[in-house]
């Protein structure tokens, strides 16, 4: 046995020491005699891989003896979540559903790594594949481009970036080139290669033009620019049953065309963006994708912006697909299910932490994708989209949006996936829009109680009905007049005493008062003042609800933008009985079921008692101030048709997918936190879209309850018929995003910034700019060198620099100094010669000059042109004496000369040959000759002046500064510098050179191209990114706070911050490391952390323990230090705004709750709404869970135990009552 083992060891050693794959891969895999310089320049800069190999023994089955060895590449071996972003890495069976600490994300789709994976990369795979080819080794050596760069001494980053740009653009073109060319072609190519190498060796600055002949860049760029990542699908689906005879999921209704189109793409494993009207049936697409994933034995993630919507979908999907799980901040049910419902924040965390579940995902369904517009949370959606791996397909569901194609194009370009946009042309259930007024213009004697009127203002076809609007206005005007007259009479303001002592009304005075009041009443957009038409009174709303009941418009959602008003409106409806006995019994049963989930002491909370009274009347109230379980109770009862009238805030329209027969707007104005403003059209569309139940209603009814402002018809039309949501990027750069991306080096953070929706439109131009850069580089290369007669080509560069500097001094002189007769030298664009000003004018607030100029080396011709002050480089003291008459004629000559051709054409078209016309032509010619003589006279004077100047007889002197008292010393300094520059100009060899003008134009054109090239290179660089300055500053902050090193390696603080998603990551990390929480009891920790979990300030006295007060003081110092650091690094931080996000209002409540105080007692000591308290306590639980992980990372076991105890103490009673949706 020992002998056999020794033999095995020797054989293995000998085998491994042979020249095997190890040495071959680390070497250069190419056949020298077949490889050209061109190929060397084309190859990617790929580093040799570190390859794991498995050596397996071959055994004789009969004897058990070893007969040989076999060496195999072990792809994926040793790859784990902490060292690889590959989907082939090992799974961690102990991993949390959200991933693990320090886990790297899977490499996001659509990106190209700037550094290859450290263990397995493309280079090694290609090398191994080449060894298996029958026709020999691969001709393309890994890393050859880096070799050439090092041999040529190209180390400049800009030079390297330029070649890398070629690599990126031409990657596919390079790989597909035919390397088996005939000998003649090889000889020609070798000659071209030699020339290209010579250029590189000579200039040490390889440009795109240098390689253009080899790489066919233009063709490739054209192909790339025409690549369409989005398709608006209008496919004919009349043969849908033939294409898919057996659906994966059957539906009990006929599918619409948009649903069929989406299903066709899902069957082909393609991504879709479904922008359909509210209640059109977008959920069908989501359900079909879930069923497909189930059939494919893969997994699917559904994500929504609102927890209430996630809960609702969990309930619905659970009934249909059974194996469904849900993960939110405080709930995790069945996380191993094939269908997972998660919040977008959870999905983002799973992606950053590299959760293993991601590799099994086939679809991610983004419901209500238009929520990306949310100012606070929209960035989470962008991050999630950017970070998803390439194997995951997208299903995006949205209400109609204005720019769905552009948004889908961004996703397509980012993820390198074609996105199919599918939309609906119109609502399946049309809407009718009415104004409700509490008037009785059509009321007749003997009718039932008057309940107000509905005036149609927009019909089913979306046409604004002006007559309906005017009728509503007249009805309100009449009611206002009547009520105002009654008020005046009640006041007895017009009564007077007669001589007999009797009271009599002064009718003329009453009429005058009424007329004045009526003027105020009838104007749109003006308040109705005292006429009493405010819609916020009990009779108004009881009449409206009675009207809805009479017209059979239940169920109805009434949107109000105030929680207090929702509560008050609900209380006013207590007297109604809108239910049948059977419906009332069902509601009572559901209430009883809800009560069983609560401790006995919480079953009689005031809020719960009040909602029970309303529900048994058929009325519900829904807003964020309610306890979560109460909101769920209302939602479920409404979905089952048991709540007839629901008063809700606008979050109900976004968070809950429950249509109604009718929608009522209490107001079409809302407070946006700063001021009251009219609703945006997209807000109105979102909320009004809840009206109209598909398959039940022929049309949906939308009612605007006119309040104390009657809005102008144009405003109403704009709101109702305006454009839908326009998707906009809310991307912002967060510290946690930076730290998470710094964890792995395969991706530059700048590349992520570049792929954000905010950069989309600028990146669209990138391909065109690259093409322009190629063209400019080619033109620059083709410009001939200046052939200087002095053999000193550098003189023109000096001359150009002087002229450029001189042109920057024009502002030294006032406009009156630049008067007609002044001799000047024109600038870069306008001939660059001596000239004389013959006229000045102001055009668009800018000075313009009409000049006569000539080339001193071609002194027989002159020209008259208009220039700007920026075209003047030198202004001389010297002037030419020109009479006013001469100036007038010279200017006229220029105008006549410029219009000569057009005048001739007009004359040639005239058919009149009268003597009168002949005389006119003769006079015109005579005038033209006189004008030319005047211009020629000025030209001769100028030429003589220049001749005397050049000969030194009477040299020009620079114009002196106008004498001004208290002149700025900087101007004097500039003037002195200009004199010095002028002297240098005259000393330059080019100044007297006859080829000056030609060479100057060549050099000027070259400099223009270089400037344009620099601009394009900047636009294509990372420095042009919107968030690049902020990114650089935040990196500095992280360095100064010791979260990362100078070389951007994440330190312990940084890794801890990556785990904190529920509050400010920098502040909380600093607090953990400061030890501010270590000496606190669990109740005190809860009290202290409340500082970060509630923003609203109520200015009430707060009672804290001494230890908590000390901790809060430490918090403030830590925050102050962070603010100071950020400001030093150049970030615009306002300390007042920064601290406004923190409040102690819940500190005492958290302390009491953690101490075991019943919820019923807690709500007695505060006016903070119950729903807000519950949400904050649940957030506290999320924070404590994260901080337990953080405490484990830093090895503080006592702190781990403290956070664990906090969670245990607060997780009780109604705050953590089980959701009704989870039954």
UniProtKB/TrEMBL annotation:
Residues 896-931 have a biased composition (Low complexity). CDD domains: SF2_C_Ski2 (cd18795). InterPro entries: DEAD/DEAH_box_helicase_dom, Helicase_ATP-bd, Helicase_C-like, P-loop_NTPase, RNA-DNA_Helicase, SKI2-like, Ski2/MTR4_C, Ski2_N. It is found in: Cytoplasm. The keyword Ligase does not apply. The keyword Ligase does not apply. Residues 586-742 form the Helicase C-terminal domain. It holds the Pfam family DSHCT. Residues 263-419 form the Helicase ATP-binding domain. Its main location: cytoplasm. Keywords: ATP-binding, Cytoplasm, Helicase, Hydrolase, Nucleotide-binding, RNA-binding. Residues 480-492 have a biased composition (Basic and acidic residues). GO terms for cellular component: Ski complex. GO terms for molecular function: ATP binding; hydrolase activity; RNA binding; RNA helicase activity. GO terms for biological process: nuclear-transcribed mRNA catabolic process, 3'-5' exonucleolytic nonsense-mediated decay. PANTHER family: ATP-DEPENDENT RNA AND DNA HELICASE (PTHR12131), ATP-DEPENDENT RNA HELICASE SUPV3L1, MITOCHONDRIAL-RELATED (PTHR12131:SF1). This is Helicase ski2w.
């Amino acid at each position: 046995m020992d002998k056999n083992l020794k033999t095995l060891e020797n054989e293995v050693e000998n085998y491994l020491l042979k020249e095997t794959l190890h040495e071959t891969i680390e070497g250069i895999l190419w056949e020298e005699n077949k490889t050209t310089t061109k190929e060397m320049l084309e190859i990617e800069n790929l580093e040799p891989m570190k390859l794991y190999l498995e050596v397996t023994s071959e055994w004789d089955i009969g004897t058990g003896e070893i007969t040989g060895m076999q060496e195999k590449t072990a792809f994926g071996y040793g790859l784990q979540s902490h060292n690889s972003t590959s989907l082939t890495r090992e799974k961690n069976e102990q991993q949390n559903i959200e991933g693990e600490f320090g886990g790297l994300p899977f490499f996001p789709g659509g990106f190209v790594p700037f550094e290859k994976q450290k263990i397995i990369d493309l280079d090694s795979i290609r090398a191994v594949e080449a060894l298996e080819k029958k026709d020999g080794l691969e001709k393309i050596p890994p890393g050859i481009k880096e070799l050439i760069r090092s041999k040529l001494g190209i180390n400049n980053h800009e030079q390297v970036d330029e070649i890398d740009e070629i690599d990126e653009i031409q990657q596919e073109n390079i790989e597909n080139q035919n390397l088996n060319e005939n000998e003649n072609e090889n000889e020609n190519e070798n000659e071209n290669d030699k020339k290209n190498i010579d250029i590189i060796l000579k200039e040490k600055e390889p440009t795109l033009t240098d390689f253009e002949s080899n790489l066919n860049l233009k063709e490739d760029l054209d192909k790339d620019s025409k690549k369409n990542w989005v398709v608006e699908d209008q496919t004919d689906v009349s043969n849908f049953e033939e294409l898919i005879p057996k659906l994966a999921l059957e539906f009990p209704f006929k599918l619409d065309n948009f649903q069929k189109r989406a299903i066709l793409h899902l069957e082909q494993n393609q991504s879709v963006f479904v922008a359909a009207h509210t209640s059109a049936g977008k959920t069908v697409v989501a359900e079909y994708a879930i069923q497909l994933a189930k059939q494919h034995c893969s997994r699917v993630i559904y994500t929504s912006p609102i927890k209430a919507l996630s809960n609702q979908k969990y309930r619905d999907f659970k009934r249909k697909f059974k194996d469904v799980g849900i993960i939110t901040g405080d709930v995790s049910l069945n996380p191993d299910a094939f269908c997972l419902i998660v919040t977008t924040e959870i999905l983002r965390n799973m992606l950053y932490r590299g959760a293993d579940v991601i590799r099994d995902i086939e679809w991610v369904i983004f419901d209500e994708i238009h929520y990306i517009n949310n100012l606070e949370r929209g960035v989470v959606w962008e991050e999630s989209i950017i970070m998803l791996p390439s194997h995951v397909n997208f299903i995006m569901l949205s209400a109609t949006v204005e720019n769905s194609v552009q948004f889908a194009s961004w996703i397509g370009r980012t993820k390198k996936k074609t996105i199919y946009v599918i939309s609906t042309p119109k609502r399946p259930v049309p809407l009718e829009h009415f104004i409700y007024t509490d008037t009785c213009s059509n009321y007749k004697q003997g009718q039932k109680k008057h309940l107000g009127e509905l005036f149609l203002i927009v019909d089913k076809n979306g046409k604004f009905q002006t007559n309906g609007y005017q009728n509503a206005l007249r009805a309100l005007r009449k009611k206002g007049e009547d009520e105002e007259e009654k008020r005046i009479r009640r006041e007895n303001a017009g009564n007077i005493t007669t001589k007999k002592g009797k009271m009599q009304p002064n009718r003329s005075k009453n009429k005058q008062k009424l007329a004045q009041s009526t003027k105020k009443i009838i104007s749109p957009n003006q308040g109705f003042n005292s006429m009493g038409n405010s819609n916020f009174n009990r009779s108004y709303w009881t009449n409206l609800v009675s009207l809805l009941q009479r017209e059979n418009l239940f169920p109805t959602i009434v949107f109000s933008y105030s929680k207090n008003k929702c509560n008050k409106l609900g209380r006013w409806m207590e007297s109604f009985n809108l239910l049948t006995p059977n419906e009332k019994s069902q509601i009572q049963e559901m209430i009883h079921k809800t009560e069983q989930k609560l401790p006995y002491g919480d079953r009689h909370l005031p809020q719960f008692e009040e909602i029970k009274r309303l529900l048994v009347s058929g009325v519900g109230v829904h807003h964020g101030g309610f306890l979560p379980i109460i909101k769920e109770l209302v939602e479920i009862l409404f979905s089952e048709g048991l709540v007839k009238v629901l008063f809700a805030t606008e979050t109900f329209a976004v968070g809950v997918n429950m249509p109604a027969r009718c929608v009522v707007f209490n107001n079409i104005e809302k407070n946006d936190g700063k001021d009251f403003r009219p609703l945006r059209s997209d807000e109105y569309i979102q909320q009004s879209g809840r009206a109209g139940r598909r398959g039940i209603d022929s049309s949906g009814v939308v009612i605007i309850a006119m309040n104390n402002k009657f809005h102008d018809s144009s405003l109403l039309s704009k709101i109702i018929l305006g454009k839908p949501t326009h998707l906009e990027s809310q991307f912002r750069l967060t510290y946690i995003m930076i730290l998470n991306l710094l964890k792995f080096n395969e991706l530059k953070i700048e590349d992520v910034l570049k792929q954000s929706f905010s950069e989309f439109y600028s990146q669209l131009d990138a391909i065109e700019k690259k093409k322009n850069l190629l063209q400019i580089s080619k033109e620059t290369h083709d410009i001939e060198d200046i052939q200087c007669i002095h053999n000193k080509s550098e003189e023109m560069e000096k001359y150009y620099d002087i002229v450029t500097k001189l042109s920057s001094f024009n502002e030294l002189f006032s406009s009156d100094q630049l008067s007609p007769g002044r001799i000047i030298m024109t600038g870069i664009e306008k001939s660059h010669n001596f000239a004389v000003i013959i006229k000045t004018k102001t055009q668009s607030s800018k000075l313009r000059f009409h000049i006569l100029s000539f080339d001193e080396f071609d002194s027989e011709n002159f020209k008259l042109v208009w220039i700007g002050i920026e075209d003047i480089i030198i202004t001389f003291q010297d002037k030419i004496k020109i009479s006013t008459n001469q100036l007038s004629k010279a200017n006229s000559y220029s105008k006549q000369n410029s219009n000569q051709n057009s005048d001739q054409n007009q004359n040639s078209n005239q058919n009149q040959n009268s003597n009168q016309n002949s005389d006119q032509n003769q006079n015109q010619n005579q005038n033209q000759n006189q004008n030319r003589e005047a211009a020629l006279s000025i030209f001769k004077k100028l030429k003589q002046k220049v001749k005397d100047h050049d000969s030194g007889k009477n040299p020009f002197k620079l114009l002196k500064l106008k004498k001004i008292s208290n002149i700025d010393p900087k101007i004097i300094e500039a003037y002195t510098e200009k004199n010095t520059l002028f002297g240098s100009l005259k000393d330059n060899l080019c100044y007297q050179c006859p080829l000056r003008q030609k060479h100057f134009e060549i050099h000027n054109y070259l400099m223009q191209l270089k400037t344009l090239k620099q601009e394009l290179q900047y636009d294509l660089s990372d420095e042009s990114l919107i968030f690049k300055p902020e990114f650089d500053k935040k990196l500095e902050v992280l360095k100064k706070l010791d979260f990362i090193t100078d070389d951007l390696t994440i330190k312990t603080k940084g890794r801890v911050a990556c785990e904190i998603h529920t509050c400010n990551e920098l502040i909380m990390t600093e607090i953990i490391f400061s030890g501010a929480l270590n000496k606190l009891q669990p109740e005190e920790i809860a009290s202290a952390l409340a500082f970060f979990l509630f923003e609203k300030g109520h200015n009430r006295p707060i009672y804290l323990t001494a230890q908590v007060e000390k901790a809060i003081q430490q918090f403030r110092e830590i925050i102050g230090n962070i603010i100071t650091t950020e400001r030093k690094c150049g970030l615009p931080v306002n300390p007042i705004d920064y601290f406004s996000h923190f409040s102690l209002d819940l500190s005492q409540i958290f302390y009491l709750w953690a101490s075991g105080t019943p919820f019923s007692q807690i709500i007695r000591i505060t006016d903070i709404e119950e729903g807000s308290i519950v949400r904050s306590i649940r957030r506290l639980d999320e924070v404590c869970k994260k901080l337990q992980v953080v405490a484990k990372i830093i090895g503080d076991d006592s702190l781990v135990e403290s956070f664990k105890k906090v969670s245990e103490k607060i997780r009780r009673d109604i705050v953590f009552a089980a959701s009704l949706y989870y039954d």
